[in-house]
Amino acid sequence: MAGTEVTNRQILFKNFVVGWPQESDMEFVTTKKKLELREGQKDVIVRVLYLSCDPCQRGRMRNSTDSYIPPYTPGKPIEGYGLGKVILSSDPAFNEGDIVSGLMGWEDYSYGFRLVKIDDLALPISYYLGALGMAGFTAYVGFFRICEPKKGDTIYVSAASGAVGQMVGQFAKLFGCRVVGSAGSQQKVDLLTSKFGYDEAFNYKEEPDLDAALKRCCPDGIDIYFENVGGKMLDAVLVNMKVFGRIAVCGMVSQYNKEVQDPIYNLNYTVKRRLKIHGFLQSDHMDVQPEFFKNVIQWFKEGKLVYVEDIADGLEKGPAALIGLLAGKNVGKQSVKVADP
Amino acid sequence: MAGTEVTNRQILFKNFVVGWPQESDMEFVTTKKKLELREGQKDVIVRVLYLSCDPCQRGRMRNSTDSYIPPYTPGKPIEGYGLGKVILSSDPAFNEGDIVSGLMGWEDYSYGFRLVKIDDLALPISYYLGALGMAGFTAYVGFFRICEPKKGDTIYVSAASGAVGQMVGQFAKLFGCRVVGSAGSQQKVDLLTSKFGYDEAFNYKEEPDLDAALKRCCPDGIDIYFENVGGKMLDAVLVNMKVFGRIAVCGMVSQYNKEVQDPIYNLNYTVKRRLKIHGFLQSDHMDVQPEFFKNVIQWFKEGKLVYVEDIADGLEKGPAALIGLLAGKNVGKQSVKVADP
User: ∠ CA B269-B275-B279 to the nearest 5 degrees?
Assistant: First the structure.
């Protein structure tokens, strides 16, 4: 395989983005590529199979180095979390044919970074991109490690049917919490209660008063808020938190396309209610990963978990899928299928 | 003593306050009072000796029950943390002549609540109102329990020469942190470095750009922020926090007289930097109090701690002292001396 020239479709990043990104900020191209491992390092080339669309990718379209991960390079493929099959490897940890997850370019053939070999392929392969991938692990770390849950707690999850939210809600329900969620369409709200086991749910776009909606669904207040959206929702949640409440900040997707963030006015409740607000990234908690794989695979096998995905078929559909995710058009975990395993 | 009629000077609360409180929102009166324990309860009457002026008292001037402590009652004396001498007691825990700290009215003779007997009077008595009282205990709990300090951490303290701030800075220095503080006058800034051992300090009123001031004093970023002020300062701090930084929210004195809180824009840094923002109240951590008394009394005896107080002499000076505190006119811990022990 080494030295072979292949046809390599790519999604190139065109320009740094201010405000809402457009599909035209990316470009689908077909190129030729010679498959060659780089010398002087442990290197892996994968055939990309599935790519994950994640809100955090918006941050990498910004011309800013003030984050935990560098920005995209104009003229190069965008990258993200994905699944691939190893086709060339100088890293003894990976053999040709291995299925791996990790960071890779949005193209047919890519160098892989921070790869993890998937040993137990008992579940549908796309699950390893979401429920058993970065999103599921984010939900697991966030809920079990950051939220400090207690049985009987009321947890409220925003973006509750998304890749992370649907897992958080189910983990919380299995753990013994009362689970309330919000999403941006009736279809998603129906999913929350009919499929993911949420006790109550509301469509935030149909609520003129978020504070009133939260008081209706959480009349005794909120013990845990799993924060995915930020902005006005966070402000409404703060005044509804119970004493000693915890807010796990996973992300703030409503803010990612704003050059000036929405103002937050109610942080005085951190003292009144003795709140803990805790931002986290799954990658800081890799020690939890073995437990995560073990438990979540078992819970799926026992039928205790479900997963809803929204898979765009074909690399060329990637830009629309990613832009759609930022606007909440997806129903369930948004990903892009690039090739069959 | 029971049944005696005494002259009882009082500071009455006149009206609920919107915006900045004025001295005229309180009234100094001289009344007569019959000293009588109430039946059916363990009751204590104290001769009030010292009263503490605390920013949290502003909250009790608001017509709102949305806090951890009820509002003041118009027509009744304001109350707060103070020192008193027991003159009548039906509570077996307290005897006539005991010196106690706790909640009491701003008057000569008051029922006492949540009292603690002071056994070891080795230090100046007023210290038991501040350094060894609610403020010192707040600093102790906040620093040792909430801030999760590590040796070598850079800690930044706002309102750093105040009742709480001066103790936090000294605890942090004893613990082995690099300590940076801000205050609102050159006199206070000088105190920080010359008296309390702060490594660096600045006058926030003279800084046109708080972000630049923080970058100058904390060039490698901030591990711990001890939050006393809120508002623009918090927003400037957020972007200067290091990864895994902790913000202990003790109070937000810059916001207490605002009907709408200043907006905060930089909470997206909670994820970028994986920050923990933790609001707390000392009264939730009473299990730490024996350790606090033991350590802090010993550190004072060893000359490792100092304390700067600003004592108004006479109950009638109380309203001006309390209003002055909210405007930052005090230098060090503001209290009111009512009577000699």
Answer: 115
Same fold yes or no, B5-130+308-337 and B135-283: no
Residue A64 confidence class, pLDDT cut points 50, 70, 90: confident
CA distance B277 to chain A (A): 5
Q: Residue written as tokens 């699944």?
A: A83
B68/A contact by beta carbon, under 8 A: yes
Report the half-sphere exposure of B103 (CA within 13 A, side-chain side).
11
**DSSP string of B117-158?**
E-----S-GGGGGTTTTHHHHHHHIIIIIIS---TT-EEEES
Split at pLDDT 50, 70, 90, the class of B219 is very high
Q: How far apart are the first and last CA of chain A?
A: 17
Find out whether A263 and B260 touch, Cβ atoms under 8 Å.
Answer: no
- The predicted-structure confidence for A80-105, as pLDDT tens digits, reads as follows 999 999 999 999 999 999 999 999 99
pLDDT, average across residues B68-94: 95
DSSP-derived 3-state class of residue A51 = strand
Predicted confidence (pLDDT) at residue A67 exceeds the cutoff of 80: no
Q: Torsions phi, psi of A189, nearest 5?
A: -60, -40
Q: Which CATH architecture has domain B135-283?
A: 3-Layer(aba) Sandwich (3.40)
Write down the mean pLDDT value for chain A.
95
Contact at CB, B279 and A263, closer than 8 angstroms: no
Six token digits for residue A341: 């395993």
Question: Is residue B164 within 8 Å of B334, Cβ to Cβ?
Answer: no
Token pair listed for A200: 């109550």
Mean pLDDT of B262-275: 96
Helix intervals (H) in B246-337: 269-272, 289-301, 318-326
Cα(A197)–Cα(A190) distance, rounded to whole angstroms? 10
Contacts of B255 in chain A (CB under 8 A): 268
Per-residue pLDDT tens over the stretch B148-202: 999 999 999 999 999 999 999 999 999 999 999 999 999 999 999 999 999 999 9
Residue type (1 letter), A180: V
Partner B, chain A 108-137, Cβ-Cβ below 8 Å: none
Question: A322: distance to nearest CA of chain B, Å?
Answer: 21
| Distance between CA atoms of residues B218 and B238, nearest Å | 13
Nearest to B89 by CA among B37, B53, B156: B37
B271:A280 CB<8 A? yes
**Residue whose structure tokens are 């011309």:** A63
Q: Is the dihedral of CA A212, A216, A221, A225 positive or negative?
A: negative
The fold adopted by the segment(s) A5-130+308-337 is Quinone Oxidoreductase; Chain A, domain 1 (3.90.180)
Res B66 pLDDT > 80: no
pLDDT, position A69 = 84
Domain boundaries, chain A: 5-130+308-337, 135-283
Q: Strand locations in chain B, DSSP E?
A: 5-13, 26-34, 44-52, 79-89, 99-105, 109-117, 154-157, 178-183, 200-203, 222-227, 241-249, 276-279, 309-313, 333-337
Alpha-carbon span A270 to A262, nearest angstrom: 18
Q: What is the DSSP letter of B256?
A: T
B26: which strand partners? B13
The answer to whether A247 touches A275, Cβ cutoff 8 Å, is: yes
Distance CA A199, CA A211 (A): 18
How big is chain B by its Cα radius of gyration, in Å? 20
Give the list of residues 6+ apart from residue A283 with CB closer than 8 angstroms, or none.
none
Six-digit token string for A149: 């849950």
Burial class (CB in 10 A: 0-12, 13-18, 19+), B145: middle
CB atoms A270 and B276 under 8 Å: no
Structure tokens at A28: 């689908």
What residues does B155 pair with on adjacent strands?
B179, B224
